[in-house]
Amino acid sequence: MVAGQRAAAMATVMAATAAERAVLEEEFRWLLHDEVHAVLRQLQDILKEASLRFTLPGSGTEGPTKQENFILGSCGTDQVKGVLTLQGDALSQADVNLKMPRNNQLLHFAFREDKQWKLQQIQDARNHVSQAIYLLANRDESYQFRTGAEVLKLMDAVMLQLTRARNRLTTPATLTLPEIAASGLTRMFAPALPSDLLVNVYINLNKLCLTVYQLHALQPNSTKNFRPAGGAVLHSPGAMFEWGAQRLEVSHVHKVECVIPWLNDALVFFTVSLQLCQQLKDKISVFSSYWSYRPF
User: Fold this and answer.
1) Taking CA 61 as the corner, what is the angle to CA 55 and CA 65, rounded to the nearest 5 degrees?
2) How much is the CA Rg of the chain, to the nearest whole Å?
3) CA distance 7 to 13
4) Residue 7: which region, alpha, beta or left (left: phi > 0; alpha: psi -120 to 50)?
5) pLDDT tens digits for range 150-189
6) Tell me, what's the pLDDT at 13?
7) What is the mean pLDDT of the chain?
8) Is the separation of the CB atoms in 115 and 184 below 8 Å?
9) Model-wide pTM > 0.90
10) How far is CA 82 from CA 48, 60, 74, 180, in A?
11) 240-255 b/e (C-beta count within 10 Å ≥ 16 → b)
12) Which of these, 38, 60, 171, 202, is most buried using a 10 Å CB contact count?
């Protein structure tokens, strides 16, 4: 009698488990066939909007990229003022005034008319967005995902591109002072910059930043302990380096910046897209907890 009751109970449990498994398998098939594609469409729409922010077309669809003027400002100093003109991923013009701290002499320098300065950070971020869109477009509505692993692999690949795009805007390159001196940016101005000035331009989050370094030469008989500075986004006064036959020290640092609204939009789109990718990955992963084996 007891054995029969146990067998009946076991059969009931197995039947319930089989029914539950059937329901879960049906839900999982719906997730693969329907919801995944809905999320992919949503991701493509968001990333196309992000891509449009980077292209900034002119009045015609085939026209040149429009120019945008941004006024440089700083809450801490009025030593540097100016206007930067951005055209897509390039600085097409720069007009800068620098008031020298020691004698209040006013220096004015601007880009030569035949020069543009490519902002590699913007170019790289745009390329990563394009690669993410390409990955998503390769799985159109007619494509049938057969396993959760396929979806996870695609989401990981898309997230990698989006993370790289975001990091290019949020993490400026660390450069040594000799690298800044050799970058070529200082040779783009007319009149030519004085030999005791270095200039660097970079993107930090949604801001375009301009840094001007004033230098002075260390005398050969200087008692200062010469220690060349390493790489940094922003060097501080007192940083030393060797350039040519001279040993130089940074005496003053002036940083000014301006907000680029469409870069802020792009960063928001990256964040929302990464969240969508992670949510889809989480849904796929939830199903694995219901089975002792992994059907995906």
Assistant:
1) 40
2) 29
3) 10
4) alpha
5) 889 999 999 999 999 999 999 999 999 999 999 888 888 8
6) 40
7) 83
8) no
9) no
10) 33, 30, 11, 20
11) bbebeeebbbbebbbb
12) 202
Is residue 180 within 8 A of residue 200, CB to CB? The reply is yes
Please tell me whether residue 47 adopts helix, strand or coil conformation: helix
User: Could you state, in order of their start, the residue ranges of all structural domains in the chain?
Assistant: 2-58+122-169+263-288, 68-118+175-260
Paired strand residues for 197: 214
Residue 57 identity: P
Of 143, 132, 191, 136, which Cα lies nearest the Cα of 166?
132
Q: How many residues does the chain have?
A: 296
pLDDT confidence tier of residue 111, bands split at 50, 70 and 90: confident
**Residue by residue, what is the 3-state secondary structure of 109-125?**
EEECCCCCEECHHHHHH
Q: Other C-beta atoms within 10 Å of 124: how many?
A: 16
**Which amino acid would we find at residue 53?**
R
Tens digit of pLDDT for each residue in 188-223?
888 888 888 999 999 999 999 999 999 999 887 776
b/e code 110-120 from CB counts within 10 Å (16+ = b): bbeeebbbebe
Helical pair 120-137 and 36-55, crossing angle rounded to 10 deg: 150
Strands (DSSP E) along 179-221, which ranges?
A: 189-190, 197-204, 207-217
**Which own/partner pairs from 153-159 qualify as long-range (CB within 8 Å, at least 24 positions apart)?**
155/277, 155/278, 155/280, 155/281, 156/281, 158/43, 158/132, 158/273, 158/277, 159/274, 159/277, 159/278
93/142: higher pLDDT: 93
